[in-house]
Amino acid sequence: MEAQAPLPLSNHAIKELYESQAFSSSIPSNYHALRNPDEELLPEDFSNEEIPIIDFSLLVGGMAMERAEVIRHLSMACRDWGFFMVVNHEIPKRLMGEMLDAFVKFFNQSEEEKNEYIHKNVLNPIKFGTSINNYEDKIRYWRDFLKMVVNPEFHFPAKPFGFRNTLLEYAACTRKMGKELLKAIWESLELKTDDIEAALDIKSCFQSIIGNFYPPCPQPELALGLPPHSDHGLLTILLQNGINGLQVKHNNKWLHIKQLPNSFLVNIGDQMELVSNGRYKSVLHRAEVNGKSTRMSIATIIGPSREAIVAPPPQLVEHDHHLAFNGMRYKDFLEQHQPNPLKGKSILDLLKVRDE
User: Fold this and answer.
1) Residue 346 reports pLDDT greater than 50
2) Within a domain: residue 73?
3) What is the helix, strand, coil percentage profile of the chain, to 5?
4) Is the pTM of this model over 0.90?
């Protein structure tokens, strides 16, 4: 068999480049994601505010008054922040650790094994890559990733051993939590929770899970793990390995998120902004890197059914006295979003209703 030509340096996984010390003291200019003067932030560009905390146990098992208070707090978090931290959830700590370990084992495989899942088609149900798009990125990001569609169809890599079972359990648990949060958010909009199924077909929700791997970077002041972006779904549920690195845009300032132990960070996605008629806005966030520790995150994106036409319910339009967004089938949104997934909120902006 004829030997394959070696991959160009830019197409190697960041993990392998870091371990080979190919960039032992400096990084190439195409990794300088923060080289623009506009990105040179000063101390006053950062916020010290604390992100809202939602007690999930009171949402699903509290007294009526306790649940009502949590929903009021949830409404404030969605309206004013677009991000909140979930504590006292029902997902076992054991499973959270096992999921992180499973991704570590995947990323620790040889490049040959991982490269089985490199695809030019960004909509492939299992996709391994580096940066954002191995084939298109001009500015590259200090990140390896594995992305899988896990609902309504379940996809998983053949290796490492045991990955499938852990992923299956984790996907089911995060999907259950996501649905409870969605019902509560729907209720916070003063909509009947029975209507959410008709509007979004949540039983057939589109769910994907992305594992992100950010090795130490020799020049973290120049690089980013991910640039500012919003997420495309209804909700994103984020698990981290204890190394902070997420920054959220809040009131035109960047906030360093310090996640509590045994918690999940949840954020509003573009589809929630659309269906809420703009009341709850998806928020720009980005991943920074550091020079000492490997950061890992696992993002679970919960969306409507791919066949659902997502649009503001008539009750919200009537109450707000205006229509903020035109509707769009979620599958079509994904097809437009995925080739350029981190272009701010450009796809959602196209759906805004313009005043004549």
Assistant:
1) yes
2) yes
3) 35, 20, 45
4) yes
CATH number at residue 328: 2.60.120.330
Q: How many CA atoms lie within 13 A of 228 on its CB side?
A: 16
Q: What is the pLDDT of residues 131-154, one digit of tens each?
A: 887 777 788 999 999 999 999 999
Q: What is the pLDDT of residue 5?
A: 39
Give the structural domain span for 60.
9-350
* Within a domain: 114: yes
Q: Is residue 4 part of a domain?
A: no
d(CA 202, CA 195): 10
The lowest-confidence range among 90-94, 131-135, 212-216 is 131-135
Alpha helical stretches, state H, 276-354: 314-320, 330-337, 346-350
Structure tokens at 176: 């259950």
Cis peptide, bond prior to residue 160, ω within 30 of zero: yes
Does any domain span residue 1? Answer: no
CB proximity list for 21: less than 8 A, separation 6 or greater = none
Question: What total number of domains does the chain contain?
Answer: 1
